[in-house]
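Entry 14. Structure prediction run on the chain below.
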Amino acid sequence: MKTERWTTSNKAVYNIGYHLIWCTKYRRKMLVDKVELRLKELLQSKAIELDLNLDTMEVMPDHVHLFVRAQPIHSPHYIVQQFKGYSSFMLREEFPKVKSGLPSLWTRSYYCESVGHISETTVRQYIEEQKTV
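Output returned:
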């Protein structure tokens, strides 16, 4: 887990975190035992490949929760697309039971919430007070 609040690059200083959730198709409880363990490995390796910090991960039998810290160049949609596409392809290749009876492993939808150090209320107040300073 990262202890510094900000990350820096040669062009930006940022603190971007996303809480991501997505479900299996038809909410089938397929993410158990060896499939769960392999999914965690796949998500971690994809995070390393994309240079993301996979801060927290929990795999439930029918859905996945991630807290990811990202660079400004990666949109949440791109991150989810990469995680879901790669993990679906690999798990369906390695585990025939994941492939049987399902047109795809994941639903098309996902949940995303941005997470940062400063609350929405604080940001609004800061912006509104700029003219008064």
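The two ends are 37 Å apart (CA to CA).
Filed with the rest of this week's runs.
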